[in-house]
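User: Please predict the structure of the protein below. I'd like the answer in structure-token form so I can feed it into my own downstream comparison script.

Assistant: Understood. Taking the following sequence of 121 residues as input:
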Amino acid sequence: MKPKQIEHFRKKLEEMSQQLLNEADKTIHEMTDHNDNYPDPTDRATAESDRSFELRIRDRERKLLSKIKEAMERIDEGTYGICEECGDDISVKRLEARPVTTLCIACKTKQETQEKAQKGF
């Protein structure tokens, strides 16, 4: 991969990370500043459901932040864009769609097929 492409993905990953951190900060402020004193049990249940949903989203984003950090480490190590399974280059098109990926499309397809077979689909 060309140095210019590597820097493009580094910047993209940094922007993704910053956006996720901003969303997490926003959620923390909303949850700490918000007074959930609802007299109606239905309103209280809706607020709890919304909060639970928001926390599940943030948990998924926390996992994505970890993957972003790992991708940045691969950039620093010079292994970014190389498939962990077969050692081939991961296409730029695939990296644009999923910058944290560690598998080329062929290996990812193979992995998904094996997972489906194990689940009995």
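That's the full token string. The mean pLDDT is 92.
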